[in-house]
Amino acid sequence: MLQKQPLNINFAQGLDLKTDDKQVTLGKFLSLENSIFTKGGLLQKRNGFQTLSALPNSTFTYVTTLTNGLVAIGNSLSSYSSSAQKWINKGFLQPIALSTLPLVRSSTNQTYADSQTAPNGLICTAYIDAQASGNVYAYTIADSISGQIVVPETPLVTNLVGRGVANRAPRVFVLGNYFIIGFGTSNNFLEYIAIPYNNPTLPFPAADITSSYVYSAPQSWDGIVYGNNLYIAYRNSSGLVTTVLSSLLVIGLSITYAGYTPTMLSLAVPTTGAANRIYVSWVNSDTTSGFTLAMNEFLVQIMAPTAWISGTQVINNITSTTETGDSVNIYGEANYDLPWGPQDCSIGVINLPFGGSPSGAVTIANSVSLASKAFTINNIDYMLATYVSSLQNTYFLISGTGQIISRFAYQNGGGELSLGLPNISINGSTVSIPYRTADLISTANSGTALVSTPTAPVSLSAVYAQTGINLVNLNFAPPTISSSEIAETLNVSGGMLWSYDGVKPVEQGFNLFPDNLDPLSTASTGGGSITPGTYYYQVTYEWTDNNGNINRSAPSIPISIVVTSTNTITLNVPTLRLTYKSNVSIVVYRWSAAQQVYYALKPYSSAPTYNDTTVPYVTIVDTNSDAQILGNPILYTTGGVIEDIAGPATSLITLFNNRLFLVDAEDPNLLWYSKQVIEAVPVEMSDLLTIYVAPTTGAQGSTGPITAIAPMDDKLIVFKENAIYYINGVGPDNTGSNGTYSDAIYVSSSVGCANQNSLILMPNGIMFQSDKGIWLLGRDLSTTYIGAPVESLTLDTLVNTALLIPGTNQVRFTMDSGITLMYDYYYGQWGTFVNIPGISSTLYNGLHTFINASGSVFQETLGSYLDNGSPVLMQFTTGWANLAGLQGYERTYFFFLLGQYITPFKLQVSLAYNYNAQATQVITVLPEDASPAFGDDALWGSGTPFGGQNQVFKARVFPQVQKCESFQISIQEVYDSALGIVSGAGLTLSGMNLVIGAKKGYRTQSAGRSFG
Hints:
The protein has one helix and 80 strands. It is mainly β and 1012 residues long. Strands 44, 45, 46, 48, 49 and 50 form a six-stranded antiparallel beta sheet that branches. The longest helix is centred in the middle third of the chain and has 4 residues, at 626-629.
């Protein structure tokens, strides 16, 4: 006879998904939803989340705060007004993730490059290599992920007799199963080489496109892939010719438009819509007249050549886009007639409707030249632009309306492109573009005197830069957006470092410093008090943010002006034209032998000279004697203070030692950090304040680039994908001296972190997500697999945000699977929240606030149990109860539930048996009717019993199958409006009490399942 015995099960251990579900200890759960652990052994319902005012669109993917105000970021930045209960647009901000990959490096210069990426991930790069024996026209094929070379440098030579050698800049396309490299030859052939990208070591022989190609600089042919064809336009002796190459490598018919002399061409095809229109745009050899025609996929003209510009302005390069085919945007690069400096170019756009008349030209960007073909992402046009300067060669990604999206290759860009614009590759939301970069820089002796004249100014520096070819990858749907608040501003990651001061987002620091201060500035007689001598000038751009912090650029390179008997100096100072900042001041500082400190020409109290983006320079007249400027502000670099240089593109930002730290997106082994931020001082970055973290550590082999950073106590923790390091010490002063930051010190290579979003500092250390789940780096630098109980919920999904919830012991991880993992660090228990699919979360007014994929914003509401109108419902499933051993024989007579009634509820109890997870018994459990609180009776004291019923919840449940080897209990709270059950706190559960009996330590097995 079995002896009945009770078995208590309290709810004190949370989820356990790491253990075999048949051996999970009773008291642990296989699922646990919407419960929190405010008391040991007690399950209590979490709070609900209610909506705030909806954002204007679904592009917003990130929420954070600035000075306790809620901020959302998408393709703009919006802040939430709690008083007006609405979102306010603060301005444009387009986050992107940027990375670079070296493509071609050698001891020679690469002067031109084009590339395309095949569906299998191989990238073909065609380029010109300037060697001592002359230009070599070649290609190479590499893996676009690792950069490993698959096909080394291979010359573009034809094996067809009489065709000459390749001597024009090549272009690359992906057509069908091939890389197609097109190029001109020395005797008027236009040819192509087809390379099977699945077998790239066996290229096809060169074949003709035409034998009557007429080359005209910069590039008198172009092509574009549309459907299964490569459409080609080129110049011959008669005019403009269009032809087509099919994916079967068959050249189709050719159509000639006589009388035109294209010297630069651009083709555009629709990216959306059904219109089969191929636009061919070109500029004639006079470089001042441009035309566009449209044809269908059969080369039939459907819009006659239409003039879109005819004038005297010289066009250097063009590119074009069409989204739906209803019109074409033509972007052109033009020159200004300026006597000096890098300010003498601009990019403009003309829109030409199909069959209509062109719009007027609109300038979208000044001081830059085109550096790539234009492309369209999310209905917006973009293109690379290059700022050309002997000091600050830099690439900018700009939109079709001139907004600056990214800045990279600062001071080592490859300069202006004179042989045509490179193609782009688009894979989903990622755009890849080849660009030239200076990878070796050294001074050079010019050997000549520097003599400037108004018609022949000279460069102020003599620098030799050997160039290579890189690939930039621009992801317009970045997996990570990172931000940090310091100096009362929000610093945001992206294709450049952004800064938001509560008014509008702008670039952090300055994209450029005052470049190439006019060597033609002069001294003249009359009106001033300057005595004879030699005077040196430096200029800075300065801007005061919304918090009163003065931001300063690096100073210009000094120029000297000799005053003999004159007493006035006129300076031509370049303006800052690539900026989001308004009211930038141009501040001039002067030094002389008699007064050897750079003093500003004006005190701060006087009217400043403001930057004007509509003009290339402003004229400033200096009439002051040394005595008159004494006491004015001094140049901030006085005394050896290092100059301020804007930080690079980044995806990883954090704070440490009152400094902003970030990882350089172009070199993810390089940490940048700011000067120390003190009161009334902004974040000031410098390229002199960096720490290199080597990608290898002795016998451990390569640990790869930096993937995440976070502070902990006196250490900056540096994560690699499979390793952890730390840096400690104190940073340098503003002269760059007296710093004690250590080299990166190795901690562990057993685990790392590849997800900056997962980092959270909690009392025991830093929790983070690795490829092995969620781990803890303790304050003693030990690593613990703290997330083992929820491993299956973390291995194939990423943490979107990690939050430490005030007033609780909870860490919450919002996952891209839609669930939220909750870890109670006091009890060491895991649970899940469901129906709150946050793609980004933050703490706003101390409450968990998140945004979902539709752009709706929700905030935790204390004491409410609704998620946007839907009830919050608790649910749990126990492990298998095998009380007589894994396959023992047991009887379960019944079990008790014990809890506390709070509001009306309904429970659905499901029972499964013998390791079959399919429930075979479902039981509904209802509480006794609740009575009013003491004193709330209609007639005081009329309750039964006096003062109201006891609020303790008790229930007994009888299983349908008592004799079994195991059973499993699932309890689901159910919403049932028909019973008058509305969403409320429902109940708490303290545990279960099983009444069982066990007969033997094993269960007999049927003959059919017995063997041997």
